[in-house]
Amino acid sequence: MPTAPEARRAPRRARPSAPAESFVSRNIVLHAERHPVKRPPDEVRSALARGQAGATAREQSGGKGNGTMAGTEEKAPALFMGIDGGGSTCRARLRDGAGAVLGEAVGGSANVYLDFAGALAAVRDCIGATLAAAGLQSDAGGRLRVGLGLAGVSSPAIAAEVAAALPGFAEVRVSNDAVTACLGAHGGADGGLVIAGTGSAGLALVGGREIVVGGRGFVLGDDGSGARIGLDAWRRALRAHDGLEPHTPFTRSLMARFGDDPAAVIRWGLAARSADYGAEAPACFAAAAGGDAVALSIVRGAAASLAELVAAVRRLGADRICLVGGGASAVRPYLPAAVADALAPPHADARDGAVLLAGGRLP
């Protein structure tokens, strides 16, 4: 049975939401403030000291920008770390100057709008774990160039605040996770992207312009996302409990987790965040695959919303469009055939897009 998630989280840090127009005709791979590079940040050194292993430690549980961060002279070849932070996980990959993978790690949620302090903690943990996975010493931070694509980075001010919170590296570049996902999907070239993850958004990188469609967050948008699928599932379960529509095996299974007590569902739901709702999406897809009527209608509705994003991105001039995110493969069979057939396979993932953002290269 799910537990109230707020009990284990720091209070949400409220921040204003930037309007969509802030993305249009503006480079949102944002300039990072300058910091002297003297040693790795305390969080990285302490993470290494604790022996946080790389990927296994966590698996168990647009434009390229021109921001610079001047530092002391590097005495060893630069390293490039790409970090993709979304509503459910934070994933990092470290490459050397030739593009070879040196280490990877996975951490917790890194949505800076929902929980700024928690997102930064997840990023720091991921950096430390990735360096440890690569077998690097603590002084590697001074030659590390970091590219971050984080959910919730919706303005230059937020990006600068994130960069300022990560001193001690050779360079830090910050952008929205949709931008780094698009950079990875098209290898840094022009193209379009639709993200079907915990949240959802569309992005076109065309002629040096970055234009976002959707991505308004869990409350006001994110149609077709895992979080919306989970929310719709619980809404339908409660409606069935009240006799407003027929029960199905899927809705009964949801209510059974709370002892068929709608008050318990409401208590959980009021404290739940987008990642908590998104965790329900796999069960909905599984039920849909088995023919459950409610689950099918929810998944088909999500697919229709994502198809609308694909069409909107194409109208913005993106000829090559990729569908990415944790729900991409599950939702693809429910897309209209013409939409699914027109989608292109991604060249690389969002972590590699963040590596490109940092100034690195792919093999």
TrEMBL record:
Biased composition (Basic and acidic residues): 31-45
Membrane-spanning ranges: none
One Pfam family, short name: BcrAD_BadFG
CDD domains xref list: ASKHA_NBD_GspK-like (cd24082)
Domain ATPase BadF/BadG/BcrA/BcrD type residue range list: 82-330
Region of interest (Disordered), ranges: 1-71
Gene3D superfamilies given in the database record: 3.30.420.40
Protein name per the record: ATPase BadF/BadG/BcrA/BcrD type domain-containing protein
Organism: Lichenibacterium minor
